[in-house]
Amino acid sequence: MVQRQIEGRGIHDPRVLRAMRKIDREAFLPEAMREFAYEDSALPIEEGQTISQPYIVARMVDAARLDPADRVLEIGAGSGYAAAVMAELAMRVYTIERHPALARLAETRLQAMGYGNVDVRAGDGTLGWPEAAPFDAIIIAAGGPRVPEALKEQLAVGGRLVMPVGQTPNHQQLIRLTHTGKDGFDSEMLDEVMFVPLIGAQGWDAETARGRQECTEPTRVPAREARPLPGLIKQAARRLPEPGDESFADAF
Ligand code: SAH
Fold first, then answer.
1. What is the fold, at CATH topology level, of the domain defined by 2-238?
2. Which among 190, 197, 245, 200 is positioned nearest to 10, based on CA atoms?
3. Which pLDDT does position 119 carry in this prediction?
4. Alpha carbon distance 143, 233 (integer Å)
5. CA–CA dist 52, 61 (Å, integer)
6. Are the C-beta atoms of residues 200 and 124 closer than 8 Å to each other?
7. Among 72, 198, 208, 221, which is best to mutate for testing ligand 1, by the most ligand atoms less than 8 A from CB?
8. Cα first-last separation, the chain
9. What is the pTM of this model?
10. Which ranges of 96-195 would DSSP assign to H, the alpha helix?
11. What is the number of H-type helices and E-type strands within the chain?
12. Phi, psi at residue 199, to the nearest 5°?
């Protein structure tokens, strides 16, 4: 997974690659999804949410240039997978999840794995975690219409914020904001990406986000309800090329 999906796509920081090799993605998935743990895609988890594609996790932590002494804020703990990767790369990780059930699951998992340097909280991450601010890096794992002001305020000078921002349903630009000075921010566009919506006071409202999710292509959008495995397979299935075709091996 790491060699083909991550190194193969141009991520070369040895610390990032080591962290990605170390964290077992399987351990963050519901039982029925485990056999797909090393697939090159996001996968459905509890509460109709998703675990990010491994490459995207690597891309975001790489873009945030995490240093071993850093204090990092993550918005959208989800399964806790990305938080574990960050916990390998930084000193302390604070992560917020909107769904209390997911927050509990992620916390239990991370504790069982021995990550004493991760704090999990249930709540609206668009407001940040003011008591623990400022942060050297902020990583937002859900797509919003703009960078929440509260998060900009909680970014240390020199800090990096990585977030998918976009006006269209589940399609965003991954951007990096660097806090350069008192009120100065540098913004860079990194990639075209697809994330689940950031829902909260400084993100989308739940109603709009639901409408937005429903009107997008079903194969590319995570199921809102946990669906049985055969349905998920049917939804993701694609026809194989003819066996003699040169693209057969890859597709197969
Ligand atoms: N980092 C996760 C990926 C999570 S997907 C992983 O590695 O598994 C994005 C998550 O963001 C979802 O779990 C969703 O519930 C959460 N989310 C959406 N809006 C949020 C908000 N305002 N505050 C906190 N979490 C939010």
1. Rossmann fold (3.40.50)
2. 190
3. 98
4. 26
5. 12
6. yes
7. 198
8. 16
9. 0.86
10. 100-112, 149-153
11. 8, 9
12. -110, 120
Beta strand segments in the chain, E: 43-44, 50-51, 71-75, 92-97, 118-122, 135-140, 155-168, 171-179, 185-193
Intervals of the chain under pLDDT 50? 215-223
Best of 56, 98, 224 for a ligand 1 pocket test (most atoms within 8 Å of beta carbon): 98
Question: Taking the domains of the chain in order of start, what are their residue ranges?
Answer: 2-238
The three-class DSSP label of residue 193 is strand
Pocket of ligand 1 (CB under 6 A): 49-52, 75-76, 78-79, 81-82, 96-99, 102, 124-126, 141-142, 196, 198-200, 203
Structure tokens at 15: 């610390």
| pLDDT recorded at residue 173 | 96
pLDDT in tens, 69-79: 999 999 999 99
Active site residues: 52
